[in-house]
Structure formats: C-alpha cells, structure tokens
Amino acid sequence: MSLGQRISRAALQWPVSWLVNHKSLPENPITELQLDPQRPIVYALKTSSITDLMTLQQCCEDLGLPGPFTPLELNGQRLPRFVCLDRPPPLFGKRNKPLPFLQEFHQLLDLHTQDPQLDIQLVPVTLFWGRAPGREGEEASSWNIISSLAPNRLKKALIIMLKGRENLVRFSPPVSLRYMADKHGTDHAIAHKLARVARVHFGRQQLAATGPKLPNRHLLFGQLIESTIIQDAIRQEAIREGISEEKARKRALGYMDEIASDFSYRLIRIGEVVLGWLWNKLYRGLTVHGAERVRQLAQEGHEIVYVPCHRSHMDYLLLSYVIYHQGMVPPHIAAGINLNFWPAGPLFRRSGAFFIRRTFKGNPLYSTVFREYLNLLFAKGYSVEFFTEGGRSRTGRLLPPKTGMVAMTLQAMMRGLDRPVTFVPVYLGYEHVMEVNTYHKELQGSRKEKESFLQVIGILRKLRNYGRGFVNFGEPLHLSGYLNEHAPQWREHIGQEDKPQWLGDTVGKLAEQLMTRINSAAAVNGLTLSAVALLSSERHALTRDELEAQIATYLTLLRQVPYGPFNTIPDNSAAELLDQAIELNKFDVSEDKLGQIISLDRYQAILLTYYRNNILHLLAMPALVAALIERCEGITENEIVARCVDIYPLIKTELFLHYDEESLPELVSALLANLQQQELIQLRDGGFWVNPSNQMRLLLLAESIQETLQRYAIVLTRVLAQPGVEAEQLESDAMMMAERLGTLHGINAPEFFDQKLFTTLIHTLRHEGYLDPACKPDIGRFQALADNILPLLSHKVQRTIRACCPSC
User: Fold this and answer.
1) CATH number reported for the structural domain that contains residue 370 in this entry
2) pTM across the whole model
3) Are 659 and 625 in contact (CB under 8 A)?
4) What residue numbers bound the domain in which 175 lies?
5) 3-state secondary structure at position 201
6) pLDDT for 448-483, tens place per residue?
C-alpha cells in the first residue's frame, strides 16, 4: 500500500466504520464458493477506491478471509492482494494515466511459471452502494449509482453518506490462475483477455443486482395502448359491445390500471427492514438453499420466471424478501385480484405485484391487455413470479397445475425474446402456516373468507413464533432446451400469432414438470418427520423413544437413498429434531414412570396432516416397498419391482414424483439394502421378511402410504363392481365410500375425501390404458392392478370397501 493510501485509510477509518453497514453474498463464501484458505487469494475489483477496499477489508475479517490489505508474499516477493481495473476520474481535468492492472495480471500469471505448485485464487468482488435501477424516462441521480460506475471522489463521498447502510459485497466464484497459466499461457495477451473477461463480469453483476430500469406506468400504458394487437382488440370490443372505440379504449386503459404494478425501490428498501423484523417476530430463522444457482442465471442474462408452490399469503412477501436479500432483483408477481383491497393492494402493487382475474372467459379485451402487459415485462427484462397451482394449497400437497401463465410465458418467448427464458421452481416450507386453521374449516365445508383489511389486522394480532421457514430454489428448467426435446419444431413458429397444434400438450407436460421440480426441492424438518410418524401410529401416540427411533429411520433413508440433489435434509440428530418440533406446542406431551408419551388430539391430528403432506412424496416409494414386505412376507425382489412398476404411475401423478420407470429396479434395490442395513427386514430363502425386533418401525413406515392406497382401492373396487359406470358417477361414489371408510376407521386426513384426487386418479387410469374415454375398464389389467393393491390394505379396510360395493 502506498503512503497516500495509508494516510487516506487512517483518516477514513472512523467515518467508514460509522457510515457503512456491509452485507456479504454469499454469506459464507469459503463454503459456498469452495475457497481454499490455504491457497493464495487475490481480489479483483472494478474501481480503485480506498473506501471500497476498507469495506472489503472489514467484510473479509468478519468472514475469516484475508483482507485486501493483508500482506501477500510469494516466491520472496511482496505483492498487492488486490487488482483494480479502473481509476476514478479526478475532480478536475482528465485522467492522466491508467492503472497498471495489466502489468499486475501478467505478474500474477508469470509467478506460476516460476513455481509449479502455486495456484492463486482470483476472486472477483463487486461492491454495490445502493441497488436502485432508476425509472424509465428519468435520469439517474448522482448518488443513486453503484461504485462500479467509477464516480469521482466527491460523488463517492455523497454515495457513502446516503447509501452506506445499503452496501452489498458480492463475492464471485474464484478463477484459478494455475488453470489459466497452464491452459492459455502467461503472456501479455492473456492478461488482456483476463481483464476483458473481468470487465464483462462486473457489468453483468451490476445488471443482475439492479435489473433494468423500473417501468414508468404512464409510458408503459402509452406503449401498450398504441400496440397493434391492443388496437385491434379495441376495435373488436367496440364492434362486439356496440360502443364507440373511444369508450373501448378507456376500458382497455382501465384494465391496464387494474393489472399493472407500480414498482417502488424505496418501498422495497423499507420492506426489507420491516420484513426482516417480521421474520424475526414470526420465525426462528429462515433457511435458504440454491440461491447461488439463481444468481448465476441472472448474471448470465437469463429471463427468470419464478414458480413457487403456494402455501400461504406469506409466500408473496417471503420470496421477494429472500430474492432481494440474496442480492437479486425482486420479481413482478402475478397476484390474485382478491388481494387488491386497501391497504394491501396498493402495497403489493408498489412491491411489484400485478393483478390477475381468476378467469379471462368472455372478456377478450381483458385477455389481450393482460397478455400484452406480460409480454412487455418479458421484453423489458423483468423477472416474473407466478404460482402454477393458482391458489393456496389447503392440504399441504401440491395442487394440479393451472397452465394459463405457463402458456403465456411460452408464447412470449415465441414472439422472439432475445434472452434465454428459465423457470426456477421454488419450494416454500413453514413449520407453521398461519392460515392452517382456516384451511381446515374450509375443507370441512365453511365458506372461504374474503380477504380484507380486518382479516389482516386479525393476523397481525396473532403474531407469534411460528418456527422456521424454508426457501429452496430447485433445478432450473431452461425453456428452449425443454422445447428442443418435446417440440423440436417450435422455432418454425417464432413470430407467428396463431397457436401451434403442439402448444396445449407441451404446456401441460411442462406444467407437470415444474410441479415435479418444486417437490424435488422439498425441505425436511423435525415437525414434518414427527407428523409422518405420529399420524402413522394407530392412536396417534408414541413413546418418545419410539418416535425418536422412527425419525432416525426416516433420516437414514433420506440421507443414504436421497430423493434427489435439490431437496434438503437437516444435519441434526433425531432427538434434536424432535425437541424442535415439541417447542412448536402442537403435541400433547405427558410423562409417567416409564418416560414421555407424545400424542395428538383429534383436532391437532387433522391439522398435522398438512405438514405431513409437505414431504409425503419423499417417503412414498420407501413406504410402498415397506408395505409390500409387511403384507406379503417372503416376497422376492423381482416381485417387489414388478408390483412397484404397476402401482408407481398412480403415485407418480398424484405426488409429482420424479423417478422414471426405468430407474425403479435400481431404486428398489437401494431401498431394500437400506432397510436391511437398518435391520428392519431380513433376506431368507430368496425372499424378504419383517425383522420381528424392529417390526413397529417398518409398520409405521408402511402405514404412511396406506391412505393413498385405500383411495386407489376404492376406485378400483367401484369400477369392477360396475364396469360401465360413468366418470361423474364414479367420482361421486368414490367420495361417498371414502367418507364411510374415514368414519369407520378414524381417517382424519382432509384430502382423503378430496374430489380433485379422485379426478386425478381417474385421469391417470385413462392415460395408462386401464380405462377408455368412456370409463370402461380393460378388465384383465384392471383386475391385476386391484390384485396388487388390495392385499396391501388391512383386512378390516378391505371388508369395508367391499361392503360399500355389494355386487363385487
């Protein structure tokens, strides 16, 4: 460090420490970026700034990294630990000489020819002082820009005074200079190339963090109303309704005002503070996984479309907060028109929400305005968020997807977007959903309450600790790659207004794939595991030792035969997870001389089905294998595989499982090996048997799939009793039988009687060829499927189902 830098650093030490509040991304770069503290680290920055370097120094000290002022000695040479590409312009005159960054890059590369063991990690670091992108039609203010734009010293002083509390230090994945030297050499041309790549990187980082300028509603409405498509729609509306074109035009403008967001960066900043307080008030912590993948997509210029599951009204706030907190641009969010009430509506609108009606039917002008608005958002580069389920799940399961927004996204791409479009599935999980009591009442037949200001006040009055929240970003789906595989001819239709024939089928499959990827990112926690175990027990009660052992069984299965790379399993022990679940006060905990008993009363048992259903899909196949062994002792591995292949399509469609049928033999083999390792089953004479000493653990595992199999058995039995029954009658009879079964056998799960599940099942039976379009069965295949499923149920349940169909 030069003498001038040392003097500046000493003079600025107190002002910087007082004015600057930094936040780093990622929060743990050593782990998340796989930095090796044992290897030399050099930082690359866009601009030479003593305040940037001082902020970075403090940030590195907090993270356990060597700071930019930390001495670096290599091969007997004392070297700077940072390289800067630009020098800020002077207050007066022109910049007299460039920074020697090319020489520094070359020197670092050349050291690798002298020492074959050397491998310097070059870590790009971007410092943001405020992230407001500005608004269309407005010039950026002097202080509302980030430091990478190389402001002069006076502007930088203003930035630090006004934006010092908004500082974000973004670490990027390291570049191995050993790789660069070995692959490309160490001459000056490579140093030039490294500098060019760094400049592009910093530019992309800026765009990823700030996004494009926010839309100006007045200018946006002008662009929309003058578009050819909306002009044609206005003329058609005037003819259809028998009104003047001017009146139809005003109607279109009214729709725009109803739909369009009015994004406010200032409100986002206020919201970050308020929501930070709210999460601390409501939850004991937020756990976020996979954000780095999304940041990389944003940096690469992808058009990001977030597709989260929908559990609660908190989802809107939670996801926007997390996205902004992770250094990305909050999306424009498709929100139901039912949320456009005062004061929530204006706040949501200023937070990026645009409002959508439940149906477009019978209103082509509204449909056209909405589609053109969405197309314009994509064209301008704004990220978008929508809930493919349409509404909140009342049961904790994913709902069948609504395809409207998926179709409109695909059509927007077909109009010729010049950026890759990528869907990012998001799993949102809570240890407590604040609306869960309301969901239960609605499932019991109560009318859905209309959202209102009084309802918001009621929720705020109930604020208390709701446990933990989970946000998992799942496997991204690149739309062009998906279309290349499933609709290879799609590029022929770019720019055409007519819908291609393949669109409907492709959109349906795409929506199903998005739901599958949401489920693949599920977060497991102590409450969900406890709920699975307790609801599988006969009287919803277990001793603490039994419950701990069962949670440990689930954990071992999920860790050693993982569902996939995107779902998350806690590192805690079964005892620690159970303690966390008990703290939520959802269980009855009693104690006698033999120890603790943990149980559920009838009401809590119903509510906890919601949390069980959040992760039921992760345990569905282990439970099916356990049920086959528990009910068919001595069954061989080949028989287990054959029955799983037969039953799996039904479970796959209902629970959005990601396995393909070709992988089932390998999966079954891994599950059997794990159950043997846990000593739940034994292999004797070529068949699998229950281990008597651990029978209860296997039985509880098998029981978790029983309600699903019972519903299948109801439909199969009803069809076999009357092969010509119509679909509508079949659904009605199945629901009636399910209610009878639930009453007689104490089945409390609200989804057990859900018509949507029976509709999905009948659709799957048709798709798999068990039923024809008229609901007439292929008797041979249908009977074989029934023979595989019915023996997995208890004799009492089988008798009840048959009693409901006396002609069976």
Assistant:
1) 3.40.1130.10
2) 0.91
3) no
4) 3-210
5) helix
6) 666 665 565 565 565 566 788 999 999 999 999 999
